[in-house]
Amino acid sequence: MSQISTDNRSANELVLITGMSGSGKSVALRGLEDIGFFCVDNLPPELLSDLVDVKNYRNCHQLAIAIDARSAESLPEVSHRIRVLRAKGINVRSIFLDATTDTLVRRYSESKRRHPLSATHGGAERHALIEAIELERKLLLALRDEAHVIDTSIIRSTQLVDFVNRLATTQSSPITIVLESFAFKRGIPVDADFVFDARALPNPFYEEPLRALTGRDGPVQSFLAEMVEPDLFSEEIIALLNRWIPRFQKNKRSYVTVAVGCTGGQHRSVYVVEKVHSQISHRWAAIRRHRELD
After folding, report:
1. 3-state SS string over 81-92?
2. DSSP letters along 87-150, please?
3. In the chain, which ranges are continuous DSSP H helix?
4. What is the pLDDT of residues 44-80, one digit of tens each?
5. Closest Cα to residue 97, out of 38, 15, 181?
6. Rg of the Cα trace of the chain?
7. How many whole angstroms separate alpha carbon 275 and alpha carbon 196?
8. Alpha-carbon distance 98 to 150, whole Å?
9. Are 288 and 277 in contact (CB under 8 A)?
10. Long-range contact list for 117-126, CB < 8 A, 24+ apart?
11. Helix ranges (DSSP H) in 170-198
12. pLDDT single digits (tens) 12-23
């Protein structure tokens, strides 16, 4: 796991981790604990404000809380409680961890754990695993819509921890742009707000000296920079973001994910993400994520 600087945290920081059971919330929470956050798992939403007050009284300003479907009856209150905390000056970063149903079924089968919604109403009503997962999706839909979504289906635990830590410690900003490269052969990220296809660009993979390198390496960058198409492609993405990100800000969005894909997620998409990041990071808080490389 890469080192994360925590010097730029705001004075009153709350990271709220929500998401599907089996999507990695406990893993993410342990990662935040390792970098100095005070962490609480499965907190009833009714206690959210009280816990924040207690931690402020004890002068511990970096707090991470996980809330999930086990608090089903009080989930509708979470959005209101978040607004109240923000009105008090608390910087609330809401992160939602998701995964495909097939992935969640596989994880539960491997762990032999029971889904928390597999039995409801005191055990009188039982759900098959897939039915429980779909019920959970419905219960958490409002929280998902208000959070930054991370698809954990095909990433390792170390990747998840690194990404959540970077999101949690990025300089406080009205909006954060997440720039993500990926491989189409492994699927489009479900958390993407914009998806761009870089497969029409010249491919360094077919140049033998460049095949084992990535879009972060100088020779690959020089190869692509000599051609018109890659920089034109990047400039058009930047122009679109300059036009539309302010609209997202007006709608109170905290995060926007921009995904750029190519065949293997190694050369072209990585180059474009690096290029776009270098051009927009002076205007907005921006995070780079290379799904197939990190």
Report:
1. HHHHHHHCCCEE
2. HTT-EEEEEEEE--HHHHHHHHHHHTPPPTTSEEGGGTEE--HHHHHHHHHHHHHHHHHTSEEE
3. 25-34, 48-57, 78-87, 101-111, 129-145, 157-169, 218-225, 228-250, 268-280
4. 888 888 888 777 656 666 899 999 887 777 888 888 8
5. 15
6. 20
7. 14
8. 6
9. yes
10. 117/21, 117/69, 117/72
11. none
12. 779 999 999 999
pTM, 2 dp: 0.79
List the structure tokens of 100.
Answer: 């495909």
Q: Could you tell me the two tokens for 136?
A: 């959970």
* φ and ψ of 6, to 5 deg: -110, 10
Half-sphere exposure of 27 (CA within 13 A, CB side): 19
What is the average pLDDT score of the chain? 88
| C-beta of residue 274 within 8 angstroms of C-beta of residue 288 | yes
